[in-house]
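anyone seen this seq b4? input:
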Amino acid sequence: MDSLVIVDAANVVGSVPNGWWRDRRGAAERLRDALPAYAEGGLPGLVAPPLEIVLVVEGAARGVTSVEGVRVVSASGSGDDRIVQLVADEAADRDCLVVTADRGLRERVQALGARVTGPRTVWPRVPGAGTGEGDRYGAGAGDTRDEE
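predicted toks r here
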């Protein structure tokens, strides 16, 4: 069975102060569009392929659609609560990694047996990091928000 990787879209997109708040949905779509490569290539040092990637969106980003390699789940309420529910419902018999820097969410999913990693696991490899610019990358040196 494929390993499950759940990405907290709001937390990952919000980890870089690059104007994402002007277009939350567009920022989530850019993140979504960069994630399929991980389904095939895995996350080196963390999870080997193949992966099932789930991107959880909330608020203004609700309505972002799935693409091949990334299933998008729109949280009707709290994105954190939806992520916890996904871990509880879908990760019982397989490896699960949650991508978030949210300490409270980390504790909740770890209590259910999931592993956690920070936004830089996926975000620094995303050209533009939600800005639409191809020459910028995600969290800069010195950004420690995703460290344990």
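The chain has five helices and five strands. Residues 79-90 form the longest helix (12 residues). kinda curious what u guys think
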